[in-house]
Amino acid sequence: MRKIIIPVFVLASFTMSAQKEYKKHEKVEVPTEVLESFNKEFNVDKSEWIKEEDNYEVAFEQNKIETTAIYDASGHRKAIEVEAEESDLPAGVIDYVKKNYPSEKIKEFEKITDDNNVVTFEVEVKKEKKSHDVLFDSKGTFLKYE
Known about the structure:
Number of helices: 3
Number of strands: 8
Distance between the termini: 43 Å
Shape: elongated
Strand content: 35-45%
Strand order of the largest sheet: 1-2-3-4-5-6-7-8
Order of helices and strands: HHEEEEHEEEE
Low-confidence stretches: 4-23
Radius of gyration: 19 Å
Structural class: alpha+beta
């Protein structure tokens, strides 16, 4: 009996994992309002949409810079995330990350501007296979680790 249960459990785990992976790449039905807002603001040939909670996120390149725009279902742009360079970060951000997360490797940086034009910076760090974001305000003050 035990010999049958283990293979069934392993197969079920694999199937659930494969379904989860598939859902990440499923085609997203983007509301017309969202597409219209995006197309008014950006002129790009290639984009990739995902749905995250109640929002629609679109990844694309603009002027050879990786960009993500986040919209609610009504087509209101909530934020835009733009790939950044280390030199774009406020003073002290890199030192803070290296001091407080010494075992984590810095992967990338983003400048995030919300719909109220509030700017934050995100430093993605990775340890083994887990990534985390370290967020800072526009002056370089630590906000949170997620």
